[in-house]
Amino acid sequence: MEIEVDPGEVGFDAARLRRIDRHFAQYVDTGKLPGWLVLVTRRGKIAHLATHGMRDVESSAPVRPDTLFRIFSMTKPITSTAIMMLHEEGALELTDPVSDFIPSFADMRVYTSGSASAPQTRPAGEEMRIWHLLTHTSGLTYDFHHVHPVDELYRRAGFGNGLGSRLDLAGCCDAWASLPLLFDPGTAWNYSVATDVLGRIVEVISGQTLDEFFRTRIFEPLGMSDTGFAVAREDADRLATLYIADPQGLARRHPQHDEAHAAAFELPKALSGGGGLFSSAHDYHRFTQMLLRRGELDGARLLGSRTVDYMTRNHLPGGADLESMALNSFSEARNAGKGFGLGFSVVQDPAAGKVISSAGEYAWGGVASTAFWVDPAEDLTVLFLTQLMPSSTHPIRSQLHQLVHQALID
């Protein structure tokens, strides 16, 4: 990968773009991040590409443009794209009950009171539907939230470290379906395993495993040869080490790194459409360019232009924003001024979010502090890759917005 256009030709001040590098270099120099990569495009051309720091601090191996990263929840927009590709083929409707594809999701129950040891429930007032999964309004949750008794039920069911390693994706879905929902589908927003359930629906409809569908229908058409649920052993030296923030916010080697590193080279039993992919800057750049071009890149059309437009508008009931609908749980985005579409956060009111952005910008990130956004109004995409958990440790995303937008001068 390389810079493709002089920044001035696409409305950037080159000196101002370099402020991005100086700012985030301080994160590395003070030990807050191990290393990073940032990529900025405008009008379809790479105007800024920079790296700083190490993909592995202990061996002094630098971040390079071809470094492989765990993108965690940046997997979710890819899974949402897969679902909408099937939607375009008439294989599903957004209003279809999830139980049409995964029967165990019939007759769901909702938590009402009590502890995880003795939860009280009632029948759900609404069936869980495809659009509820896409918008995280399904009532499902994640084990790592630690704010609700149902979160504890997920941990007791064996989901204390993402998907249950003993189960395949079908088994995971049946296990989640056996647990109560936090709320009636469509009545609140909670970040959850919903996109993993969507991944299973892709498998059921297509008759392919999720990795095969991704490879044949998305990655190969877009030229994303670095992206998958496992890393090829010959690419081991390209894989970034996973770090976690200590109480002072400094990057430390993740205590489970050795286990995670060994597992990276084997296809997992449960293919996580919510957070299981590894990728590179080149590959995710290809994906964001497809989105910016409304479903097509270099002759490969994954989605119709109106489908992308529809996915990237706010779908929360009544036009609500995340600030009003989100429960008190982990989110990869600041909630003020943002709605949620079919797989992305969507900026509705930039002033409410207090971060320079454009109405209609859509985005998401990953728990290891990775992030991307697409801004159709500015014909802009931005990608930031690093490997520090959790993503809430430092205000990387808001500061990146400031630094990118201040460099636009046209």
Quick structural summary:
With 410 residues, this protein is an alpha+beta fold. Helices cover 30% and strands 17% of the residues. It is globular and about 60 Å long.
Annotation, overall tally of beta strands: 17
- State the helical fraction: 25-40%
Distance between the termini: 26 Å
| Average predicted confidence as pLDDT | 95
Pfam families: Beta-lactamase
Domain Beta-lactamase-related: 20-401
Protein name: CubicO group peptidase, beta-lactamase class C family
InterPro entries: Beta-lactam-related (IPR001466), Beta-lactam/transpept-like (IPR012338), Diverse_Enzym_Activities (IPR050789)
Please tag this protein with its features.
410 residues, alpha+beta, Beta-lactamase, Methane Monooxygenase Hydroxylase, Chain G, domain 1, eight-stranded antiparallel beta sheet, 13 helices, Beta-lactam-related, CubicO group peptidase, beta-lactamase class C family, Diverse_Enzym_Activities
Blueprint (SSEs and pairs):
Elements: H1 14-29, E1 35-42, E2 45-56, E3 61-62, E4 68-70, H2 76-88, E5 109-113, E6 120-123, H3 130-135, H4 149-156, H5 169-177, H6 194-206, H7 210-222, E7 243-245, E8 251-253, H8 257-263, E9 278-280, H9 281-292, E10 296-297, E11 300-301, H10 305-311, H11 322-325, E12 338-340, E13 345-347, H12 350-353, E14 362-365, E15 371-375, E16 380-385, E17 388-389, H13 396-405
Parallel strand pairs: 7-17
Antiparallel strand pairs: 1-2, 1-16, 2-3, 4-9, 5-6, 7-8, 10-11, 12-13, 13-14, 14-15, 15-16
Helix pairs in contact: 1-13, 2-6
